[in-house]
Each structure stands twice: as structure tokens, then as C-alpha cells.
Amino acid sequence: MDALRLVAIDGGFDLTLDGRLIVRHRPDSPALFVGRGRPDIAMVRGNFDISDRLDERIALRHATFDGARIALAAHADAPPLLYLDLDGATLRPVATDPALNRFWLRIVAEPDEQLWGAGEQLSYFGLRGRRFPLWTSEPGVGRDKASAITFQADVAGQGGGDYWNTNYPQPTWLSSRRYALHVETTAYSAFDFRDPAFHEIEAWAIPEAIEWFAADRFVDLVGQLSTRFGRPPRLPDWAFSGAILGLKDGERSFARMEAIIAAGAAVTGLWCEDWVGLRVTSFGKRLFWDWTANEARYPDLRARIAALATRGIRFLGYVNPYLAIDGGLYQEALAAGHLALKLDADEPYLVDFGEFDCGIVDFTSPAAADWFAERVIGQEMLDLGLAGWMADFGEYLPTDVRLANGLDGMLAHNAWPTIWAEINARAVAARGQTGEAVFFMRAGFTGVSRYCPLLWAGDQSVDFSRHDGIGTVIRAALSSGLLGNAYHHSDLGGYTSLFGNVRTPGLMMRWSELSAFSPVMRSHEGNRPDENLQLDGDPQVLDHFARMSRIHAALAPYVATLCDEAVATGLPLQRPLFLHHEADPNAFAVDDAFLYGRDLLVAPVLEADRIDWPVYLPAGAEWVHLWSGEAFGGGTRVTIGATLGAPPVFFRADSAMRGLFAEISDL
Amino acid sequence: MDALRLVAIDGGFDLTLDGRLIVRHRPDSPALFVGRGRPDIAMVRGNFDISDRLDERIALRHATFDGARIALAAHADAPPLLYLDLDGATLRPVATDPALNRFWLRIVAEPDEQLWGAGEQLSYFGLRGRRFPLWTSEPGVGRDKASAITFQADVAGQGGGDYWNTNYPQPTWLSSRRYALHVETTAYSAFDFRDPAFHEIEAWAIPEAIEWFAADRFVDLVGQLSTRFGRPPRLPDWAFSGAILGLKDGERSFARMEAIIAAGAAVTGLWCEDWVGLRVTSFGKRLFWDWTANEARYPDLRARIAALATRGIRFLGYVNPYLAIDGGLYQEALAAGHLALKLDADEPYLVDFGEFDCGIVDFTSPAAADWFAERVIGQEMLDLGLAGWMADFGEYLPTDVRLANGLDGMLAHNAWPTIWAEINARAVAARGQTGEAVFFMRAGFTGVSRYCPLLWAGDQSVDFSRHDGIGTVIRAALSSGLLGNAYHHSDLGGYTSLFGNVRTPGLMMRWSELSAFSPVMRSHEGNRPDENLQLDGDPQVLDHFARMSRIHAALAPYVATLCDEAVATGLPLQRPLFLHHEADPNAFAVDDAFLYGRDLLVAPVLEADRIDWPVYLPAGAEWVHLWSGEAFGGGTRVTIGATLGAPPVFFRADSAMRGLFAEISDL
Predict the structure, then answer these.
(1) Contact across the interface for B74 and A74, Cβ inside 8 Å
(2) pTM for the full predicted model
(3) CATH of A4-214, one of 2.40.50, 2.60.40, 2.40.30, 1.10.3430
(4) Domain ranges, ordered by start, for chain B
(5) To which protein family does this belong (chains A, B) (predicted)?
(6) Bridge-based pairing state of the strands A438-441 and A401-402
(7) Residue A658 touches chain B, beta carbons under 8 Å
(8) What value of ipTM does the predicted structure carry?
């Protein structure tokens, strides 16, 4: 790839990348600014209220050049405040004054340009026209300030979110101009895409680098990003060859699993997050955060796991980076000095998780990180026989915490999810289980794809709502997939049930359909199992799930090729339509359907009580409807019959796997 | 008063005022900043959503001095961006570059300093610890983002407000350091009182001036401000010698008034805002905005008014600065070119007032202003015999309007309420009725006190809620009263009834008590009269109102002395306790009670179903409970019996009017 090209012009400069004008800097319309600000930060259970008190924002109007270094000053007689060192396709800003802690860079925008990325975005796949703060956090119970659930959650304790809140932000975007841009910083940052003339990057630190990527084709651009951020290990065959049942019913979980298998379900995993025991709070049944098998709730678990393994069924658990203060591991960590401390006292920083407090294992201490990887994940989990787990949280690191390596909480916060992923990956690698044990995370940040084998889309509401329901899963898969995260899935049935919002049979069945055509089909009982419909709580829902799990299993040979492709090329399994149809302008706006590999087009039904569904079939292929075999030309909009059990799925007529797809239609 | 004193020191400077350190400017902690920004403004029916896209904020670290002029630059080698000209106690900023449209000034804060003012503030009388944007607008239906009413109003169309929203903001504060500060600008501005070390003034223009006032006593400070901003004409005796009944029932209003009088009420005014006819919308019964008597609804109104006058009862009407497009005056104004235009077309700018559109009379055109004063207020209202009116609105001027004198909408918006007041005052003066005809306004800005005889507290909700109910009236009276507005009152019973929120008898009675001990006791039927209790809708409520109106009338001799005092000294009738008790530190935090003149202390009951009420009696006087005659020493907190009909009121034992007060206790 070409490097950035610098052209001094009219007292300023242009930066171009393979012919694209990327930065246009002039004295009267500067592209670079630095400043100073003081953040206001309030955190309540992973929900952050953040604002800036901005003291200065200095336009760097005057540029001078010394080889590959640009020196920028407020004006001709002022000393330089910022250097920009050009290094290939990378720009490295260097501030001359350590008090400067704000940075803005404007990137040239084109009128019809479209943008994607910014991590795992739940509300909007296309980013143009909005501002996206990038700070890992709870997504919020309700992410729509006009929804009653969001309002109630806000009033109940700052619990509501907004369209940009996500567990996994990342300061990286892809442009329809066929370049990508990455800001290398873990500081609080924001992408502002509201202006017609420029995209503005804001960072609450001088970034280490701004990196560009360019290609003629989107697939190559995505490949470059996956190389840059790291590709996950190949998903093992067991993870996509049947459903993973999420049950948290103690020992009864085994019998319920057998009944579901007896109903015809293809099952390759049993996920019991309550393997550590339960704690009941007003939010619902939660887990006891002391990462040791709970003998009372799961007697003789080691033998149970071994017995399941002989049948090809893996057992999965749960862990997160916190330690409940009433658990044994907390005491162990405390005694060994593995906990993060308060800024102003030599005592552990405790985080309120809603009716219980936890210590934070200080992963910046090598000894603490090793302890968690070996002692907790290694000995307590992998050695017990766990084949995978939800590696929950990672978004709650407070900003006023004292860390062993001296890292400022404002910089550590966004870094934490990736550090958390690395510790899980390290533990797995130490047991030689990379590519075999599968942990899944909702939190993320730059580079999480290098360590985390599988994302999950976080805590959807148990409904079809625009900003919180089932549809957010698709946008999450598409956005995160462009940044190196090949594998994505969600809680089948949704998770958050509050304020009287509960699952319907229709929702469960539509989610089964979505999950069947996703890399991993994993169910969840939700935060309030007793108040919500479960897969085995309704014969029609169970029968439908069983069939969908068989379809999911039948797709395994195809999915295996996609996994191989992901390793080889970095392409995600779920892809926006334009990735393989970039000549079709209509393909770009589709954010409610995805290509599952190159050959399947999946358009899940995202509304209640529908019997048909509109689908756009992109140009450049002929598309065969999976259930009817009817063929459609590309570049057409169709409204396809979509009763329960017949989710809108199409395959390319020229697919090498068309025989497999045709068989599936008979299942 | 002394002038500002400039002392160059440590490469910066200090400004002191009568020994007070006011501004401390140093190169490493500058007090002055200029910048450039682009506002985002969305207006829906007087509710504004405003944010700034800030391009630059330049710290002016380097100061040089030339006599009374300070020149400020970003640093020593940079050209000056701002001059500050010292002129007595006034600072006049002058920018060297017309592109600079943002200004910040930091004023030294002391740890225990308290602040008041900022116009008519409804939620907080003490301003420290919060930020207050200053932009005239609808206060919002609900001004508490945690209230269900605010949420519903927001969802229904951006209709909810926040703690700082007010019809009448003003960039003026008083400090417990016994100085006051005024920013002379009509631009969008904000006072930020969150920082412990400084108060920050923000303005979206370079202000014309920053003015200081200082005195040893608060009463003198308030007197200075009333001189600066202008004192209203003395309130005529009729306005405070009995109740003004608000009825909007067409001709039936007269019979209802007679029945209320027959029930024992003292009445000196009948206010029929529906004199122009009705228009029914989803918000409730509204008025037909064509400022001409409606013969069908009020047959023979001129004779009716004359007949009432012989009995000492005035008739009052309603007007606002807009003209409904389906009215005759709109056509008249349109033909004469009196309407404000769109920016981008030679056609009238129409404002959506909720199910009907209106033109805006362009008061920056002398001919249009004269037309409205003479043709509308003069001929249609005063010549008909109206003795007063609600001069409604003034807050809705859009920012993207084209005005005759070329004034930018961003600068005209805040100026509009005072211009509107001046036109009303001009019309009254032209008929020789100044000090006799009384119009009352909710909108305001700097200088409104010079023209407007009487403020009203805007549209309270019909409840006791913290940020919207009856209690907001007291904070509104106290804050606006410090800035020259001697006379204040409210809609007895509250106004806004939406989302099922309706009046209770208890609320009506408590509001009657508050209104009786206020300069003007005026009732209102509210926005939805048919769904809400009216004064004549419940015998107990009516009887209680009648008695309170007699008490109000009986107070007239005392209130007359207060009106004289207001003319002579600028002191408002309703005053914070500290105004006359500045030696008592406990007096400063009281914001739910007021001194009514020097001699009465009124502490209205602001909660439902109370039979007693806590009251703080300030030191420096002995206080006699109005109803029981019991005397209390000053500097004490008492919980006083306060059943309905016995609102907590105390008089000074040394009052020259104590005989009058003793008589009232028998009413």
C-alpha cells in the first residue's frame, strides 16, 4: 500500500492516500486542534455519565515542514505545539507540552460518503450524520431516550443508555471511499460524523498514532484490518455443529437438557453460568462471583462434565474479572496484593454491582494477571473440564482507580476489555486449548479480536424494539465483523427483562431462526428466568427450536469453510451485503440482513406477527429462496413469505454448497 | 462606588472592586478566553435544543497594558485578540477579529460564596454548584428529567424542560460578597457555577460590557440594579386591593363573577383572556390569536366594561406578539409589510404554535412596532376599555428569521421579551395610562423591569412538584425581584394540566393563600378548564378563596407603602430573608419563604396534606404569628400550625402596621 503523501499548498498542506484527499489543512480552515480539558465522570454500575470542561481548544493554523515531520503552531510567530511524523500510512502526533490532553483531527468528507465500524455498534451500522463517543460501558437498559424502559432505568439509577452506548467501542472506521482509519489510543474519544464537510476525531489524549488502510476492494480492506488488529483462533467444529443450551437451574439443568435433546434438538454444549452458585438481587437471579464450582448446586460436576464429553457435549461456565468480597478468591487475591486500590487509600477499590461489592483484579500487575489466568481460569475452570465460558464484563473499570503499573484510570478503562481477553486467551493457551476452548465476550476495544474467539452481542431486551431488541444483533455482527472479529452470536431469546417486559413465543422463535444462521446458536434464560418463557416452556417453541438447531447443525460443513476462510483472509462469517456486491449501490444501506459467508443471504424477521418480510437481493448473483427453491435475479427487492419456521434465507445459485442448502430445505 | 482597580502582577493582572479580588489572570491560569463556534439549534414550539460545535477556545495568556486598556494575546509573540477597556466599574471587551464569536471570563470564587439572580429562576434560588444557560424559552412541561410528565412531554415533541429553563433568563448575578455582575449581551450565554475556584461566564458573542456593582448592604445593591435595569411604574391600587378573577367562559364569565362576589370575595378585576374567542387544540382550550374583541363570545363588551368600571372592577384581556394566519390582523400586517420574513424567501416566517401557524410582527421595524402599539393595543384594547392584559409569549423568536433592521436572530431572540414589553408600555403611555393599566408578562430579559409593570411566574403545573409546582413561584419572585422587578404574581391554581395531572382542592386552597400574600391575586382556569377544579366548583374552595381575597384586600394599605418604597428604592415587594437580615448566616439558604416588605414573613405551605409547616424566623427581629398572636424570637426554627386557612405568616413585632396585621387575623 502507498504511504500518505504530503503536499504543501497555500500555506497549509494536503495529505493524500492512494489519490484520496484525506486531510486538507489551511490557515483559515485548520484540520488540527489541541487543547486542555477536565473530564466530569460519574459511574453507576457500568453506566457512565461523562462530560468535558474544556479549557482550551487551539487551532493549529500554521504548518512548517521538515522532511517527514510537520510542525504545527497556532500562528507563524508561535512555538509549535504539535508535531506530526509521517511514517508510511501512519501519522504520529507528538505534543510539545504535556499539559495538552485534547486532540482533534478533521478528515475530508465527501457528500455521499458512507462510514461503518466504530466497534460493535448496536443502533446504527451506517455512522454518517451522528456523533459516536467511544467508551466501553454498559449499553444501558434501554438505549432510546424516547422509550419508557430507558426512562425508568435512568430514573432507577442512571441505567438507561443512548444510541452510541456499547460494550465494545473502537476508534476505527471504514469509509465507502475504500479506506479505513484507526486512532491508536485508549483514551476517551469520539467520532463526529455530523458535518457535511469533515469527519472530526476527538481524543482526550494525544493519540499514539492515526493509521490509514486503503484497498481497491472492501474485502481486502477488511483483511488488512484483521491483520492489524489480530485474527481470532479458528472456531472449533463443536461450537457450530449444534446448539449450546444455556440453563442455570443447578443440577436440574442436566435433566432439562436431556428433555430438549429428546425433543429432537442437536446439542453440542451445555452452558451453566450458575456453576459458581446463585445470588438473588432485585435485578433477578445473578451469580456468585467467586470462580469455583459450587458443589451444592452442581454435585460431582467433574464427573458430569466427563460423562457429557463422551457424548460430544461440552460443558461451559462463566467468569468475570471481579471478585465478590464475600468469596474465597477475593481473600486470596487480597492477601497476595492482586487487587486494584483506591487513589487515596491503601485499600482495595470496591465496585458496586447492584446489591453486592467486588474487588477488581489488577491485571496491570503481572503477578495478578498470572494468578487469574493460572489459579482461577486454569485450575478452577479448565482443569475442571470447562470447554468454554462467558468471559463477562470488562467495561466497569473506574477511572479513579490506582493500578500497579501506574496507568491512569482514564487510559486504562478502554484498554481493560482487551487486557481481559488476553488473560483468558493466555489461560487457554497455557493448557494447549487454543482453538478448542471457546470463551465469549461482550466487552471489547481495539485488538480484542486477537484474543477473543467469539463475541456475543451483549444484553438485548427481550423484544423487537429498534434500539434494544433482536435487530441490534445484526448491526453488532456487521460492525464488529469489519474490524477483525470473525465470530459473533447473541443470547437466543434476549437477556434483559425489566419493568414488565417479558418474552413472547414469537420472539423466541424468531431468535431461534436468527441464531440458527449465526456461527454459534446459544440460548440464555435471561436475567429473570422465572418470569420469562424458556425454550422448554412451550411445546411449539421447543419443537421450533429443535428443528432450527438441526438446521444449524446441518450447516456445519458450510460454516467450517467460512471458519477456514476467516483464518486465511480475516473475513467475518456475517458480512454486510456490500462486501461482496460493491458494484451495487443499493447494497450499502442494508443493515437488517447479512451475507453468511459469500453464498447465503440471511434476512431475519425483526418484527412481531409478520408472515412475510421485505428483502433486498444484491446484484451480481442469482438468489434461490432456501425453502421454496424459487430463484430471483439480483438487484431486486422481494417480499418473501416468512411464517414461523421459514426465515428469509437465500443462497447463491452458483454456490458450491447448493446441494447442502437444498437438503436443508427439507429439514 | 469605586471603579475596578487594575494591578499588573506576575505577568498577569488582578482586577479588584472595593477591595474584592474579582478577576485573577495569570499566564498559567488565564481568566479570559475567546473562540469560534457554530450553534446547533432546534426549536419546537418555544422549546429549544441548543448545542455548540466549538471550533476554537483560545486562552489569552499574555496581557499588556496601555492606560485603561488591557491587550490580551495567546502568548507574547502573538497579536492581541482582545482588548479590555476599563471604564469605572465596567469592562468593555473588544475583539480584534470579527470571526471570534465565543467569549469566556472567569471570576474569582470564594469557598462559601453564594449566588443569586440569573433572571427568574424556577428551580434554584441559590445558583452555586450548577450551570445555567441563559436563553428565553418555554420552561417546559415538566422541568425535571426524572419526572414522568417531563418524559412524556419530551417524547410528545421536545416539550420537557430542565432545571434552568425559564421564560426570563438574565445574565446578571448577585454574590454574597456583596457585589453584582451583569453581562451586557443578548447573545446565548451561560453562567457556570460548578467550579470551586471560579465562576465562568460564557457568551456566544463578544459582550458589549461586563458591569459590576458593589455595596455594603444588599438593599443598596438591589437598589443599584433596579436603577441600572429600570424600575417599573408603581402598581395601581386597584391591582392589589382585591382579587382579579381569571375566567374564560365567554359571556357566562360575568355571572360566575357575580356568584363569586356573592360568596364574599373581594374582586377588583375580571380577566377574560378569551375576549378574542377560542380555538380548541389537543393542548386544551386556547385563544384565537387575532387581537380584536369577539362579539359572538362577548356581546356588547364595551358597555359591559363600562358598567363594571362604575363598580370599581376592571376588565382585563390578553395579547401576544403573534398573529394567527386565519385572523384579520395578520392580513393587515402582511399587506403593510409588518411581518418578519424567512431568511431564504420573501415570505412571512410562520411559527407552529401547536395545531396553528402564526406570523411574527417584526418589532425591529419602527412602522411595525408603532402599528402594533397604536393599532392593536391602542385601538383594539385600550380604547375598548381594557385596564390590563396578559402580554403573553416573547420567547419563541426563531433564530433563522429575517428582521427589518438586519439583527441576527441569535442576538434578537433574547432581546425580544424586552422589546415586547417596551411596545406594550409605549401603547399604555400613549393613552396616558402608565401606572394605571397593568399588563403582565412571563417572558423577560435584561431591562424588562423598565417597561413591564408586573411579572407572572409562567405556567406552573397544577401540583406541588419540586420543579414545576406551586413552590417554583417563590423562587421566581425572589430571583427576579433582585434584578429590578418589583411586582410578581402567579396563576392561582397553576396552569398546566396534562397527562392526567389535575388540580386538587388542597392545591387550590394553598395557592389562594400564597396569592393572598402576593402583590396581585389573580386566578386562572388553566389550560384544560373542563377537566380541572375551578374556584367556583367546590363550596369549600370558594369560601376559602373568598376569605383569602378579603385578607388580600385588607393588606392593601401595607402593600401601598411597599409600592411607594419600590418606586423610591427599587426594592421588590417579595424579598429573600437575607435582604433585611444579612447578619444572620441562616437567612441566606431560605428559598421557600419570603419577606413581604420588611415587616411580613410569608412561608407558604408547599406540600399536600400538611397541618403544620417548618419556618425559619431570621435574627434581628421579634416575630408575631399572624393567626395566634404568639411571639417568637428571631434566629429560631419553629414548626407552626398551618391548617388550611392559616398559612404561616408572621409580622415584625415592631412594625408600624402591626395594628393592621392584628385586624387581619380576625378576618
Answers:
(1) yes
(2) 0.94
(3) 2.60.40
(4) 4-214, 237-574, 576-664
(5) Belongs to the glycosyl hydrolase 31 family.
(6) unpaired
(7) no
(8) 0.90
